[in-house]
Amino acid sequence: MSLSQALRRLWTLESFAYSLRVFIALAGVTALCWWRDAPASLIPLFLGVIASALAETDDDWEGRLRALLVTLTCFVVAALTVELLFDHPWPFALGLALSTFAMTMLGAVNQRYATIAGATLILAIYTMIGLEQRGSPALAELWREPALLVAGAAWYGGISVVWCALFSRQPLKLALARVFRELSRYLSLKAALFEPVRDLDVEGRRLALARQNGRVVEALNQAKEMLFRRLEGQGEGGKLARYLRLYFIAQDVHERASSSHYPYAELAETFFHHDVLFRIQRLLDRQGQTCRALARALLLNRPFDHAQSERALADLDASLAHLRDRTSPERQGLLHSLEALAGNLATLEQTLGGARHPETRDGDGDNALYDRTPHGLRDVRERILAQLTPRSPVFRHALRLSATLVAGYGVLHLIHPTQGYWILLTSVFVCRPSFGATRRFLWQRILGTVLGLVAGWALISLFPSPAVQAAIAVIAGVAFFALRGSRYTLATAAITLMVLSCFNQVSDGFGLIWPRLFDTLLGAGIAGVAVLTILPDWQGRRLHRQAAATLAAGRDYLAAILDQYTADKRDDLAYRLARRNAHNADAELSSLLGNVLQEPGPFRRDADRGLRFLLHSHTLLNYLSALGAHRGEERGKDAAVQEAAEAILAELGRLARALERREPVAEDAGEALASRLENLEATDDGASPLLRTQLALIGRQLAPLREAAGKLTAPSPSGSA
Do residue 478 and residue 566 come from a single domain? Predict the structure, then answer.
């Protein structure tokens, strides 16, 4: 591989540009300090760069410049406040508690606010660490440490703004490529459902599919937010219009990929001796490979080839033609489902083919994106006030984190450890909104600190030269940002190594090893105790409410779909919003269950009930997606279909209300509805056959959903509800 090819591939990595910006910033700071012979300035400048990089949010260059100005203002206020209150423990503790609570509550507004607030809190602790090193300054020197911290932050922020102006589209390309990679994995998992073998673990594979659906939804949401920020005030032109159409193509692929047209176990049993299921499996697998090729092509600016999936589609059509000529009358119903499935996959293939020239996609429809950003102080205030309740996870986390830092501050004054403010820094990074995440980060932080201290001891001993140690600090700082999103243990080791190398420039780095280890253990322990004892947010307690939200969103999605079976197909904002809300709710339920499974034994006894509900609710979403995918292919609803649809909507609403209120789920209405839907599918008068079949499948899914909902609303054996 040539150097240019290697650089192009590096450019396609999500962390490469971020790491390169950090490298430029840290290397520049190091060069400046060496040129001015000011090694004492190295640590605050480094810490300012790190805090600014942690505060970075995705935006166009103008938005990033505005965010940088806000960030620097927050940094100045935080650093000066720490300097003024540092020698006054009681006012300092009060200010620490109030500021931590307020900054954490800002996370309720949106992710941009949460990121800047979190970085501000980290910079405040960096200021405490610097004050502990040099002692409280005289009033005339009060500005020096904050000035260095903010100068480092401004230096990285300036690099970030310029970078964004030069390469504003690259983050968006990376986000869209991630969407298609996740869709590729989803299609591969979907293909596994069609493996033509008996006794297939369909439930296990469906659960894996539901979890992957959450990753697809997360990637779609990230890409949507990035698109919205760049389109805001600029309109749809040039490359942005192309990327917007690629995003809509990804949405269409997702809807069709998540569609289900019949229980796969019955299809496998009926067509076990025919190759049609193998052809479907192969086509889905090849379409997954096409999505992966599309992601690579998007990043490398080259065309992609989907000839293999086209050939697989032709083979499936031939297999279906052979099957039509030899299918007995009793199999005709299942054959209709297979043909609907094949038609869906053919349209999916056509959609993927359209990604080769997305600019030719019809752009006359409703291309609006739903705006979730706050507008003005009123929106900010309303969002924060809505979360000021003990039921809110944000409120609980804010209260817990405030108590954690105040407790850490009290402990360091009680025992006066060396380098005691590392306790607070560890607690900030370890204390997370859920117990499972806190436990995971706690152990990763401890292990990473130990690895970093051992590596630091070895490297400082082997390379006593200050120049080499400065280079090690730069490389370790870059490694932290390259790894923190995927390998947190190694990222912690890297930042620990950076700290040791930096401190060894101005004092004895070896003297920091044991205090850093002790403070990490103490800070992690305080955070762990706080998560267990201060308004513990056991995720199992929220299972029934999230299950209710999932069914309510599914009901709204079905209502939006049915509206379009009496009119022309419209991919308008209202429909896309209903579809996205249904998938978001499904993803949130999957994520919630992942957190429940990491909680202590007594609090995860409802996990099996929740997984059972997720299995059936995701199957329901698959049937709804099939209805949505075939909008425009059929028109009109007869009276029987209309009555059945209204009954399903009413039943989904009733189940959602019962789950939300944790009330017993009645069975009588459900039995009558199931009987009506069985008769509906059996009626063959030529009116909306696919709509009838899919509504009947949804109706059959209501019984297991009702049973799973009943178990979730029943009193928990753990007594934790």
Answer: no
